[in-house]
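We modelled the chain as a single entity of 590 amino acids. Its sequence is:
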Amino acid sequence: MGSGSRSVKNLESTDISTETEDDLEIDEEHQDHLNEEDEVLVNEESNQNTDEKLIGDNEDKDAHEDCEMGPLNIYDPGNWDTIDHNLIKQLLRLKEHETIDKSLQEQISKEREHWRQVLLRIIALVKTLANNNLGFRGDNEKFDQDNNGNFLSFIQMIAEFDPVMQDHLRLIKDESIQYHYLSHKIQNELIQMLASENKSAIVKIVKGAKYFSIILDCTPDVSHEEQMTLVLRCVDISAVSVAVKEFFVQFLKVNETTCLGIFNVLCDALNTLELDIADIIGQGYDNGANMKGKHKGVQRRLLEVNPRAFYTPCGCHSLNLTLCDMTGCCTKVESFFGVVQRIYTLFASSTKRWDILKRHVQELTLKSLSQTRWESRVERLKAIRYQAPKIRDALLDLTNSREDTKTKSEANSLVTHELENFEFLFGMIIWHNVLLTINVVSKILQAEDMDIDVDIKQIKGLISFFEKYRETGFSEVKIEANEIANTMGIDLVFSENRIIHRRKYFDESSSEEVLQSAEECFRLEEYLKYDTCDIDGVDLSMELKVLRFNVASAERTFSKLKLIKSYLRSTMSQERLNGLAMLSIEKDMV
């Protein structure tokens, strides 16, 4: 019993151990299988990562090649195999405007073209009015009303012939649009935009040339404000042919007309234009003391900052001052021009007297003498020089008219003591020839592209004319005066002045006193007189030789200033004044 039970137990334990060993074998096989699966998964993941890396590298390589080859041209049929056909169709439709919003796009394009055409006409009108110095606004800004200004009046006139502007005005009257671009604010904005474009182009030219000269001049305007014009002179290298040009920049309001005040305004203007004051190589002003002063003048203050800014006085002003000194040293010359002005004043003070003058004088009319531009007096003197007999007949007719006794006496005095005086005719021819020659030289000096060589040549020619005229001019003038005197029936004699005998001493004899004829006295005392003049001949020659600068361009801007800022537009702002002046003076830049 005991042995049997032990055998059974042994058998059972043997079976259990056998099962355990079998289970262990199965578990090991299962574990091996799982390990193999893990290795496969790891290898697959590794391969996948490698493939992704290769794909990424290829994509980067393709992208790099695309970058090197440039963007793909979708309109090239050779590339259509690599592009989605739906995308190609959409792009072609977009190019041909065959999209779903085609009608909306057409409407937007039509609206854009309409406003473009309207603005083109408005800008052209603004330029036209500004170029011709015409006013823009009137008493109101309403259509179909009187005194609504030149701008709106011209807009209405254009609408009568132009369908674009006609349609625009219709939309305004129907209140279909809110913004019509015809208000005074739009006008000012367009003026400033055009003027700013002009100024930018001028500054660009000046900066391209690097070195430039400045020209300044001042004048009061109609609203009693001191306006200083700034003109820049440089070599324009941007054009096809290189040339010296002068450009107007702007008017500067000067509150303090002292040397320091004008200099500060100049420096501020150059800083605003971003121009370097060190690039100034020349400066030209008139002969005012605050400008040309060699101790504290504007030219001296600029030389302290930039020693290379060489100063030269205005040639035309210097020439004019020379003529003033020439006439101021001789009393008969002053009397002669006084007679010329008296003749003009006598006829111009009455319309009836002017009618009498026109009946006798049809070609050249009388004009008042200029008080500042002496060389321009040749135009006033020309009427008397070539029409002296006719003017005398008009004065004689005036003495026989029903005028008052004062007028008759004045006319008779002018005929008897002046026009029928041989000395008056002689002086008339002398001054006509002198002023005519000087006026020709003055016009050349006023040219914007004045060349120094030509300038010096003209001045030398003027000096040579005076030297020759001093030697041979008297006899030539006498021949011309004799012809006029014979035509008018005047005696060819010079008036004799009363001879004042000098007191003689006991050791002097009367035979030593030399008596001169009236003609010789006129020649020495009036034609060749120079000893009482305060001008030295050498100094005058040197002054004429250095006339290399002129402020004629600055003077011309003042003419535009009077046309733009007139009595009816005296409240114009400084910004609007500069804008209109830029469009009017530098109209070729627009």
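As a brief sanity check on the tokenised model: Residues 1-26, 50-69, 530-548 have pLDDT under 50 and may be disordered. The radius of gyration is 48 Å.
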